[in-house]
Amino acid sequence: MARRSRRRGGEGGVGETSNKIHQLPKQQLKNPYRPTEVLSEDQLETIHNASLKILKEIGIDILLPQAREYFKKAGADVDPNSYRVRFDSAMVESLIGLAPSKVTLLARNPENNMIIGENYVHFDTVSSAPNVSDIDGGRRPGNKKDFQNLVKLSQHFNVISCIGGYPVEPLDYHPSTRHLEATRDIIQLSDKSIRGYSLGLTRLQDALTMSKISRGLGEYSEINDTILMTTINVNSPLVLDDAMLEGIIEMAKTNQLSILTPFTLAGAMAPVTLAGAIAQQNAECLAAYMLSQIVVPGAPIMYGGFISNVDMKSGSPAFGTPEYIKTAMAGGQLARRYGLPYRSSNVNASNAVDAQAAYESVFSLWGAIMGGANLIKHGAGWLEGGLVASFEKYILDVDLLQMFTEFLQPIKVTDAELGFDAIADVGPGGHFFATEHTQERYKTAFYPPILSDWRNFESWHEAGEPKTHEKANAVYKQALDEYQQPHLDESINEELIAFVDRRIAEGGIATDF
C-alpha cells in the first residue's frame, strides 16, 4: 500500500511528497522530561535496605563454581554444602558506583552507534519469540525466512536502534549452529548494534568474534571498545545459573555490555506485593552486578527492570498493566540511585493485533519512557506475551515509537513559533489554514502517523473501511520492498563466511538435540 507522506528531512528533503513510508530521521534521541518518581526518597531507601537484607540473610544460589570462587575471594559467605552465597551489606555498598553511568555501544556503521545512559533513549526489536505471525500465513513456528524479514525491517526503520537478538527463533537452523548462522544473517542484513546470547560461553565468544570480523578487526584481534551486548536473566526467585554467570564473567573480561534483567512476575516468581517484587528484583540485579565488578571493576552494566503481575485465575503473565507502569518507573529510580543505565520493555499480553495490544503497549512505553529508560527492549513486534513476533504488530509499534519520538522533541518557544502576527492577521472568528505562518509549516507542523486514518466516516466507508491490521500488513510488505541491504566489504564478508563455515564444520556447540 503506497502512502503519501510528509517528510522532515532525510530522503526527499523537507516537505517533499513521497510514496515511501514516512520515517523520522536517525537521531541520538534524548528524553527532555524529568523522570516520574513513584517512590519517595524514604521508600527508595527502604527498598534498597530490604534488598541488602535479602542478600545478607537469604542469599542467592550461584550455580557456577567459578563464580562462587570469585565471590568467596571478595569476602562473600559461600556455603560449602550448597550453592548459596550471602553478602555482607558493606561488601555490596563497596561495589556500588564502580560501573560507568554511560556506555557507547559501537555498530559496524558509526551512524548507528548508541550512547546508552544519561537521558538517551533507544528502541530495540522484539527478540527470542518462538513463533511468528501475519494475517497471510497465520501463527507459525519461527523460521529463517521470517527471521530474515524481521531483521530487514529492523534495519529499514530509523526508529529501531539495534538488533537485540533474534526477532524470532529461526528453528530451521539447527540449535548447535543457530547462533552462527543467525548472527551471520544479522551482520549481512543490518549494520546496527547486535546482541550475543548468554546461553553458554561459546555462543558469546563466537558472537564477539563475528562482531570483530564485521568491523574489519579480524578474528584474533584485541579490542577494548564495547561492540556487543547480552542479556543476563536471573532465574527468579534468587537463582543465577551457569550460563548466565559465564556470560557475566566473559562480558566483564572483554569490556562488553551486560543487561541485568530478572524476570519477576509478582505472585509467581516474586511476592505478589509490588514493594516485595521490587526488592527481590533489586537484590537479584545487585548480585549479578557485584560479580561483574569483582571480575573487572568498571565493567559496563545496565540495570534491567521487568516486573509485571500474573492473572491470579490462570497464572498467565499480564503486561501493560498499572502495576507494570509503576514498577517500570520504580526500576528507573533504583538504576539512577546506583548510577547505572536503565533498560525496560514494550510488552503486551494480547493474542491479536487489537485494542488490547495497542493500549497495553502504550502503557508499557509510558512507564518505560517516563521511568527514564535508556534502552527499551522488545520495542517492535512483541505479541502474545512474547510467544509471537507479529509483522502487523511490528508496524503498529513502529508507529507508536515514532509518536513517542516526536513526543520527546522539546516545544520550541520563540517569537516565530508563538505566531503573534498570524493571530493578529486572523483576528477573532477567522481561521489559520491560509495564513503564511501555516503555509510555511503545514507539511512539517505535525507528525503524520503511519496507520492513523483521519478521514471522515463517509470517505472511510467508501474506501472499504480498511482495518488497522490490514493497513499494517500492507505497510510491512512495502517496507520490505523499500529495504536496502547495507554495504559490507567483500573481504569482510568472505572472512565472516569462512569463520561460520569453519565453526559449523567443527560442530558449533554441543546440544541434546
Which features would summarize this protein structure in a list?
single chain, 513 residues, alpha/beta, six-stranded parallel beta sheet, four-stranded mixed beta sheet, 17 helices, 23 strands, disordered N terminus
Beta-strand content: 5-15%
- The chain-level structural class is alpha/beta
Beginning-to-end CA distance, first to last residue:
43 Å
Taking all Cα atoms into account, the compactness measure Rg is 24 Å
Please, how many helices? 17
Uncertain runs: 1-17
Shape: globular
Find the count of extended strands (DSSP E, 2+ residues).
23
Mean pLDDT: 94
Task: Tell me what you see in this structure.
This protein is an alpha/beta fold and 513 residues long. The chain has helices spanning 41-58, 65-74, 89-95, 144-156, 178-189, 201-214, 242-253, 274-295, 322-337, 355-370, 391-407, 415-418, 420-426, 436-439, 457-462, 468-482, 490-505; strands spanning 5-6, 17-18, 60-62, 77-78, 84-86, 102-105, 114-117, 122-123, 131-134, 138-141, 162-163, 193-194, 229-234, 239-240, 257-262, 264-266, 301-304, 307-310, 317-318, 342-345, 375-377, 382-383, 388-390. A hairpin with a 5-residue loop joins strand 4 (77-78) and strand 5. Helix 7 packs across helix 8.
What's this entry about, in short?
This protein is an alpha/beta fold and 513 residues long. Helices cover 41% and strands 14% of the residues.
Task: Set down the secondary structure blueprint.
Elements: E1 5-6, E2 17-18, H1 41-58, E3 60-62, H2 65-74, E4 77-78, E5 84-86, H3 89-95, E6 102-105, E7 114-117, E8 122-123, E9 131-134, E10 138-141, H4 144-156, E11 162-163, H5 178-189, E12 193-194, H6 201-214, E13 229-234, E14 239-240, H7 242-253, E15 257-262, E16 264-266, H8 274-295, E17 301-304, E18 307-310, E19 317-318, H9 322-337, E20 342-345, H10 355-370, E21 375-377, E22 382-383, E23 388-390, H11 391-407, H12 415-418, H13 420-426, H14 436-439, H15 457-462, H16 468-482, H17 490-505
Parallel strand pairs: 3-14, 8-21, 9-23, 11-12, 13-15, 15-17, 16-18, 17-20, 20-21
Antiparallel strand pairs: 1-2, 3-5, 4-5, 6-7, 9-10, 18-19, 22-23
Helix pairs in contact: 1-8, 4-5, 4-16, 5-6, 5-17, 7-8, 9-10, 10-11, 11-16
